Amino acid sequence: MKTIILGIGNPILGDDGIGIHIVRKIKEMQDLHENITIDEAQTGGMNLLDLMRGYEKAILVDAVCLHDASHGAIKRFSIHDLPTIHSCNPHDVSLIEALDLGKKMDDTSIPDDIVIIGINLQTLPLEFSESLSPHISSIIPKAIEIVLAELNNVHQHVE
Amino acid sequence: MKTITIDPITRLEGHGKINIFLDNSGNVENAYLQIPELRGFERFSEGRRAEDMPQITSRICGVCPVAHHFASTKALDDAFNVEPTDTAKKLRELMYCGYFIYDHILHFYYLGGPDFVVGPDAPSAKRNVLGVIEKAGVEIGKEVIKHRAYGQKITSILGGKATHPVCGLPGGVSKGLNNDEVEHIKEMGDSCIKFAQFSLKLFDDIVLQNKDYVDLITSDPYQLNTYNMGIVDNNNKINFYDGKIRVTDQKAEEFLKFDVKDYANHVVEHVEEWSYMKFPYLKSIGWKGLTDGEKSGIYRVGPLGRLNASEGMATPLADKEYKRMFQTLGGKPVNSTLAYHWARLIELLYATERCIELIKDPKITSDDIRNPVGKPGEGFGVTEAARGTLIHHYKLDKKGLIDKANLIVATTNNAGAITMSVRDAAKGVISNGKVDEGILNKVEMAFRAYDPCFACATHTLPGGMSFQVDIYDTQKQLLNSFKQ
Predict the structure, then answer these.
(1) Which of B296, B341, B432, B469 could form an S-S bond across to B288 if both were Cys, CB 3.0 to 4.6 Å?
(2) What CATH number has the domain bearing residue A143?
(3) Measured between CB atoms, which of B13, B36, B129 is closest to A93?
(4) Interchain CB contact of A158 with B (< 8 Å)
(5) A69 reaches B (C-beta below 8 A)
(6) Cα separation, B142 vs B364, whole angstroms
(7) Which residues of chain B have pLDDT under 70?
(8) Does residue A9 sit at the B interface (CB-CB below 8 Å)?
(9) Is the C-alpha dihedral spanning A11, A16, A19, A23 positive or negative?
(10) Are B295 and B426 in contact (CB under 8 A)?
(11) Does residue B265 contact residue B258 with C-beta atoms inside 8 Å?
(12) Structural domain count, chain A
C-alpha cells in the first residue's frame, strides 16, 4: 500500500516540532519499504491535503492538545474519530473541511485511510527554539515504534 | 459585568481570542482582541549564519513563507551590499505573483467569501467553502481548486518547494527558468487572469447587487478612518515586491513616503499591558489610544490599506477595477473594513496580469541570476505580504553572522486597526445582552476581513472546538457557551 508518513509541526518552535523530529529519525532507517514516503509539513488544511494526494494511506505525526491525557502521551486516532481538526491559523480551512471538499469534487487521489499519531502537549511552546524538552524528546523511541506498527499493520493487511 | 469570549484558536488558549465585555444593561462596554505573540526570535537568530535567515524566517508562519522568505532575502541583499540582477528581481516578483494568486483565492473562496456567498447569518456548518460550492455550483468549485493550485505551482516552479521556498540568496536566486517552465507558467497565468475577472464578476453579482450586503459594507460599525500604508512603485502604483513605503492620510493625500531603511524614524511600537501584541503607529502623529482619525497614528495595511495608499494598479484590467471600486464606494479613501474583500480580488487580478507581464519578459530565461556579495553589514528588507507590509531588519557581524534581528510582521502592523474593528463591530451588533451565532459571526467578520495570520504552530489539532464563545456573569459564573 502506497503510504506517506508526514511529520507535522513547526521545527523552530520547541516541542511543537516533535512530529518532525520523529519522522526525521524514521527517515534515517535503512530497511523501509519502497512504497513508503516520508515528508515534513508545516501547514494545515488545503496544503496538508495536497501533500497526501496520490497515497492510499497517510500517517500524520503531530503534536496534539488533549485535556484528558498526560504530557507526552501518545495517542492514535483515525481521522473519523475527531470532532474537528483545524489549522491554528485563521488563514486556512480545517483538514476535515478540505477532505469534505475533495469528496464533493469526486477527488479520487485522497487516501482512504488517514491515521494520526498524536503526541500530547500540555505545555504549549511560545518561544522559538530548535530543541525539544527532555521529557518530550524521551518519547521518540516509543512513538517510532507506534508509527512502524501502523506500517506493519498495513503490510499484514496487504498480505 | 458579563464577559463574552470568542476563541477561534483553542490551540493557543488564553492568547488568541476575542473578549467582549458587556455592561450591566447588556451592551458592549469594550472588546479586546488578543493575538499570540511568540517570544525570543531575536535571541533565536543571534549568531546564526545570515544566509540561513530566508529559510528560518519562512518557518515563523505557516501562511506567509514566501513573504518572509523575500523580505529576508532583500534584507540580506542590503546587508551584503549587493544589488540582485535584473532577471533575479523579476523571478522573485514572479514567484511573489504566484503566492498572491493562491493566497487571495484561498481567502476569498474558503474564508471570507462564505459570509457573503452563503450569508452572514447562515449556520456555521453551511458557512464554508462547501456552502459556497453548493450555491455557486460544482463546476465553479473545480475552477477554484484548479486556480489555487496554479498559484502554488507557479510558486513551486520558482521556489523549489511548494510551501517553503529555498531559492532566495543575497544578490539573486538559486534557480532560473527554462522555456518549458515559461510556457507552463504562461498557460496557467492566462487562465488565472480569466478566473480573477470571473471572481470580480461573482463579487458584483452576489455582493454588490444585494442591497443588504452593500448596506452592511457601508454601515457604521465597519468603518475605520485611519491612515493607510503600502509599498508603491515610482508612479505610486501598488507593487508587492519592491518600492517605497507610502502612507496616505484621511483625505487620501500623501503623508509620508520613505525607504525601508528609515522605518524606525516613522513607525514606533506601542505596548498595552493586556496584550502580547505590539501596536505600531506613526511616530510623528503619536499614540492616542485605540482610536482613528487624523490625530491618531494608527494605520491600516493589507489589500484595502494598499489600494488607499496608492494611486492605482500598474496593470490595465486591475486599474480599471481599482477606479470602479472607489467610484462605487464614494471615493478615496474607502474606510469600510469589509471592502478588504473587494480590494483583495482587485489585487488578485493585478497579480495575474503582472505574472503574464513578467513571464513574457525576454530576460526571464536569462541565466544571469546572481551577483557576488560584498562585505556584511546592516540590512533592511520590505515586501507586501498578502495581509500587509512586512519588514525585516538585520545587523550582521564581520563574519556574516546575525548580531541583531527585528521583524515587523503584517498582522502586527494591523494590530490597532483590527482591535478597533472588532470592538466597533461588537458595539454595533450586540445590544441588550442578545448574542447568538449570527451576531457573533458579524463580529468575527470584522476580524476576518483583514485575513490576519499569527506566528504560530501548525497542526492537525484534534480535540477542541474551532470556535467557542463563553458568556460569564459578574461573578465569573458561566452562563452560556456557544460552540461551532
Answers:
(1) B296
(2) 3.40.50.1450
(3) B129
(4) no
(5) no
(6) 31
(7) 1-17, 34-37, 162-163, 454-484
(8) yes
(9) positive
(10) no
(11) yes
(12) 1
> Which phi-psi region, left, alpha or beta, contains residue B171 (left: φ > 0; alpha: ψ -120 to 50)?
left
Assign A149 to helix, strand or coil: helix
pTM: 0.91
pLDDT of residue B102: 95
Q: Which domain holds residue A134?
A: 3-158
A101 to chain B, any CB pair closer than 8 A? The answer is yes
Chain-chain contact of B9 with A62 (C-beta, under 8 angstroms):
no
- Nearest by CB: B458 against A8, A101, A105: A8
Q: Three-state SS for A123?
A: coil
Q: Give the three-class secondary structure for B19.
A: strand
pLDDT of residue B32: 78
- pLDDT for the residue B466: 38
Instruction: Using an 8 Å CB-CB cutoff, list chain A residues near B163.
Output: 41-43, 47
Which CATH number is associated with domain B84-220+336-371? 1.10.645.10
On whether the CB atoms of residues B247 and B413 are closer than 8 A, the answer is no
Sequence-ordered list of residues with C-beta below 8 angstroms from that of B303, at least 6 positions apart, any chain: B104, B340, B343, B344, B346, B347, B386
- A to B CB pairs, distance under 8 Å: 175
Per-position DSSP letters for B74-117, written without gaps between them: HHHHHHTT-PPPHHHHHHHHHHHHHHHHHHHHIIIIIIIHHHHH
> What is the rounded CA–CA span in Å between residue B314 and residue B235?
8
Domain limits, chain B:
2-36+431-483, 84-220+336-371
What type of residue is B288? K
Enumerate the residues of chain B whose CB falls inside 8 A of the CB of residue A88.
9, 11-12, 16, 454, 456-459, 461
DSSP class per residue in B267-319: EEEEE-TT-SSEEEEETTT---SS--STTS--EE-SHHHHHHHSS--SSHHHH
Q: Cell triple for residue B11?
A: 490551540
Provide the pLDDT for residue B484. 41
